[in-house]
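The protein record now logged underneath.
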Amino acid sequence: MNNLHVWLAYVAYPITTAVYFERALRQKCRTTTIGPPLPPDMIDKWQLQDMNLPLKEQDISTELMPNMVEILGSLPPEQHPDLYLWVESVGGHYPLHLEALRCPKVCYLIDSHLQLSAHLEWAKQFDVVFIAQREYLNDFRTQGMRAHWLPMGCDPEVHCHIETSKVYPASFVGEVQPGSRREILLKSLASQIPVHSERCYWDDMARVFCQSKIVFNEAIKNDLNMLVFEAMSTGTLLLSDMARNSGQDELFMDGEDYAVYRDGSVCDVARFYLENEELREQIAARGQRLVHNAHTYGHRVDDLLAVALGDKPDTFTAKELRGRSLAGVPAIDAYIPTSICISSARRSFVIPVLDMSPASEYNIVTLLNDLENIEGDVIVVFNGQEVAKQLKDHPRITRYAIMKQNIGVARAWNMGLEIAVTPTVFILNADLHVEASAIDVLEQALLSLPDAACVGPQGSFFEFTLGRDYTYFDKGTFKKPLEVDAVSGFFFALKLQHFNEKIIRFENGFTPCYFEEWDLGLQIKRAGLKNYIVPTSDYDHHWSGSIRALREINFYEKAETAGSILLKNRQMFLNKWRGIAGRDNDQYLLNSGYIWYASDRAQVLMAEGRFHEARNSLSLCADFPEIAPLLRFLDMHIRKKALISRAEHCPDENQLIRTKE
């Protein structure tokens, strides 16, 4: 490779992609740049006054359309190239008589999404064609060209991490055309979050990225652009839309390596990551490792030369690049604690007890009174010795375990399941009031609903990516059993056989509390089973009967606020399930059932003629492509009804007829 002589052809200016190829090539082989200097009028035309980088001439300076016959004739044979590489830079740079070159001729085309026709024509001059935008690969191949996908990349020495304060919540570096989608998105984002916008390059760009908590990106016509790799290379979280068919969704995982927004959710996604600093920085650091592992211009040059010189038949696929980028990188769920397995075992009530629920009118004593005439074993896990001393000999308690310290909700539930020897187990909060009829309703549903593993009176559909509910079903808000993403943890019934056979367990890592229900819901879904809520009103519960009364929660030797526990467990929850979905190659696992619930509800409302309500019921999932046909139908119907309504009030009979037609 050291003896290889490459002519690199491009228009000489310091911020074009070819400069990064030049830097990489010079480290691997003898490289000669050839091409014209940047025309002076281009600096004003392209508004490049802020480059802050010197202009230079190429090793072989030429006109915009140089004659290769004349250039080769003016040089001795030992200065002729072994490989000619033309990289797209400035329009109009089309060397003449490339056939005079007696070496492989290669081109790298970047903006095929903007000028496909011109690229298809110009590429005919070359032996091997490389394109940055994978979507158009077949357009070249169908014309008989040897075409290969070579995505953009980063230069870690330029796009590097700089130790500096994060002074900007969000930033964008680049051009913004008036009226463009990019301008609309940035204005939307800036309406809720301060956004720093600047046109700058190289060191200045890296500095802005590193001073930002989030770097915004928007694809033009689904291009996989330079900023994706450059921002990730600096170790700052990239917030990008999804460039369809570009390979982006195969190279990087949303919420694992970077963050993806839809047009309607850009503010929500940005706020989510601004509010979750540890998660944000974890993702940013992981993204940086991935691009440095497989997406530098050094990697790109190696791949290009290997194919151009015949050492391999094709460049790396997106799947292969993903694999290379993950080399040596721990799995996203590498630090999730190992869960406890449950044992096999008819109705039991498992009740974790921390205290006397000082913020509620109900407590463990009132609950034991409720259970006095309800059949079933009562298993109490005392998460402390004070209440245990008072109640461990209570006649309604069948079995108990006493913890010297608070071991948390999940571990207490798991311990109760280990002690239980019945096919149905109820999990009850100590601050619950319950009647026998509610127990019977849940038990009957658990035994009769298809594939039911967990049943309760309240639950939700949740949006995994942002860690929030799409909608929550409280008591009295629904009239028939409903399959949901998660059942609320204060009162529910589970089928122990399913838990044993599918190795479903409560995640101990969420000690002392929070996210146990969502985690359980996903475990049940992954096992091919279902979570249901069923209507009953024969119970009462006030949220946070213990937590609300505490400034800090003591567990083991620690004491933390509820807020800090919530943030920590959210990050653990997202890591765990992204890791599982990635290993199982099942991104649908993380999709909510809300989209189908909202669609079914809209269909019912439409049948009742309530089209506006139907449209509103779909507002939270308007960005999902599955909903698009239904939304188009509703919007068309609503517009038509509005036109007819206006026409019916118009005295012009002919206008009325025309409108109806």
Summary: The chain has four domains: 5-149, 168-299+319-325, 347-590, 594-660. The mean pLDDT is 89. DSSP finds 24 helices and 27 strands in the chain.
